[in-house]
Batch of 3 targets.
Target 1
Amino acid sequence: MDKARVQELVRRRITNRRLPLGRAVGVREMSGDGQPCDACDVPITRGETLVLAIVSLEWKSVRFHLDCYRAWDAERQTLFSDNGRARSGR
């Protein structure tokens, strides 16, 4: 999946609260296990890197492809202000 498509999916899922907005306080990389990515819904195969992140505000774990994790982290930083509230206007 191309980078722009992943960013759009991630942005939409953060806005719809399907993905958390808080920062990852625990991140672990491992081999994929065939379960779907929380960002793109595509299975993370054994030959791919699975990123498991624990998110602070929601205390929720999320699973990502490595590139999907990077897109999520960049997008949530864009949407999250310094005072801990979602920015308006998006």
Note: The chain has a mean pLDDT of 89.
Target 2
Amino acid sequence: MLIVPLAATPSQTISVTLAGQSCRIAVYQKSTGLFVDLYINDVLAIGGVICLDRVRIVRDAYLGFIGDLGFYDAQGRADPDYTGLGNRFLLSYLETTDLVR
């Protein structure tokens, strides 16, 4: 498992290489929750997925992403919001060996 660094801002996009995949991850807050878009090699793999505590984001191998992503509340079991990104709410990259299917 790897922690993807995020800042406590309501909208951000980061570029990171995960398992050899060139990824762009957009994280943004709306009134209904925190959402994420994932691009692999500049192709949208998933878009507009709501982020919930300890719920995998990608979930399906057919989307072409090796591994998965998920948010984890380091202080309890709340769903993430931008104010706690980077310290309370951590975006984790789960390698295939971390996944139990």
Note: The chain has one domain: 2-98.
Target 3
Amino acid sequence: MGSGTLVRSLMQAGLIDEFLFTIAPLVLGEGHRLFPERGPYVALTLVEAKPSTTEVIIATYRLAS
């Protein structure tokens, strides 16, 4: 649904002001990280969180001011 590489590039350029995450209750154990372990700290504020009918949480975060 999106490219982690693109998101990281846009974050570095300061072009993202809001994130929409879909969080599924599934643990896979491996994969690519959206946010690098080493990098600038990005403070986010939860704006809204809604559960879907399929147990997925839809969360909206904005950059904290």
Note: Residues 4-12 form the longest helix (9 residues).
